[in-house]
Amino acid sequence: MDVEGTPSFHGYHMPAQWEPHSQCWMGWPERQDNWRDDAVHAQHVFAEVASATSKFEPVTVCASATQWANACSQLPENIRVVEMSMNDSWFCDIGPTFVVSKSKSSLGILEHKVAGIDWNFNSWGGTDDGCYRDCSLDILVARKILEIERLPRFPQYMILEGGSIHVDGEGTCLTTEECLLNKNRNPHLTKVQIEDELKAYLGVKKVIWLPRGLFGDDDTNGHSDNMCCFVKPDANGRKLQIIKLHVPGPLYMTDEEAAGLIQIGEAKPRISGTRLAASYINFYIANGGIIALQFGDQKWDNEAICVLSLAFPDHEVVGIEGAKEIALGGGNIHCITQQQPAFA
């Protein structure tokens, strides 16, 4: 059901990721030009992420008709697998941005509602700068998820990916100028106009603009989820406390990894020797758990687990080995997951 007007007009806002979830949504990788060796390695890591997350909250994985049986065979029985077409599997970017509202009914009962924002999508830059040309299936993913869950849909024609924004749930949003002000997204909108749209759709009052994202994050033009995130509501007029995390590596795509890709002509080439945009910030916050990245760099891997454990003392931190495999495709754990808030 499409809703007229903006989410904030109807009393909705985007909650912080550490607030309760009803489930986590993921896609299933298969593109041969983005996931090497017929996505065998990537599918293994996606399954590890889904399995680890399912210990803390329900997980739904969406797979194409040709991959549905394969996904079912690799995932635990407690994970729901639904058939869905998509161009690739970055559900943080192509899935809906969920928003919530609380209001009292005529009987004085507090009601909790969940809806979703369906942003426009152009494959991170359009036909000239995007990661692949045809994103016609990706554009439908958010709507399909909201129809499956029978949730209201707020259509939004501004181009935006979920990984480019992060909120503290109390009125503050983080994003980057490198991405949202890039001419390949919404060249007809000014910075003030884009900020107004974020306020109207996310229910925020303040937008913190970082100049740029992580070095080398060219695929997304500097998404914030590879650079910086909130770990508690320390905005809204409070003094910000900054926690630093090293980056691993540097990590590069090897000759063997590049050789496993089949270039079909429409996707951005993955070239041997390319430095990967790897970051420990790209973790997923589940109900009582942190699904963290491990790149095989023991010194910084261990430090990341320690820092995240201190930042989230009430969460169990679970490290996922082989996070480099997702980085080869252009993102990581936060990029392939999308949290759906709980009703209460």
Automatic annotation (TrEMBL):
One of its GO terms (biological process) is putrescine biosynthetic process. InterPro entries: Peptidyl-Arg-deiminase_porph. Keywords: Hydrolase. The keyword Hydrolase applies. SUPFAM superfamilies: Pentein. The keyword Zinc does not apply. Pfam families: PAD_porph. One of its GO terms (molecular function) is agmatine deiminase activity. This is Agmatine deiminase. It comes from Nyssa sinensis.
